[in-house]
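dude i think i finally got it to work??
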Amino acid sequence: MSTRHLTKRILRELRQENVDIETPDDFYRDLHAACDFDHDPCPLGGKNNPAVQDGLDPVTVWGQRNFVNPPFKNNDKWIAKARAEDHHGRSSVMLLPIRSTTRYWQDLVMNHADVYFVVGKFKFKGYTNSFPVPMCLVVFDSAAQFNLPAAAGGYPLWSGRRTSRPTRSSTYGVAAKHPRRR
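look at this
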């Protein structure tokens, strides 16, 4: 099966209503060790389990330190809820595909959250192939409860801030000598 067909199949699976995609154990373990999460507002199997509260319900109160790997079908709603919870002092780390060209990303994430890019091809638990879209951690933490590690589960995390990225003088030196043509 070609990579193109495989990518389409994976994305089709993720758009389905009841698909649970598990965070890799080592990735979550490293984040949990650094952040000490106390709540998961969208646990695995939560949609089919009546005992689990709906994390998107306006009356549902999240924990103080939340880890959120939401269904990708409605990221905008989960991001809006995480942002609302942050206004009440409840912090969240969200594992999301990077969708910087979407309206919800521009309205809800840009200038409102810290974004940590997961460097490398991310592979979810139970899948043999990497996810076809770059992933990131979106952090809503106005209470300053989190201190994210430099890497999680073997994946380096980059905050996008100039001071936090290792420099490659040879790469930047070449770019400086050859300005972009207009």
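Helices lie at 3-15, 25-35, 75-87, 103-109, 169-177.
im so relieved honestly
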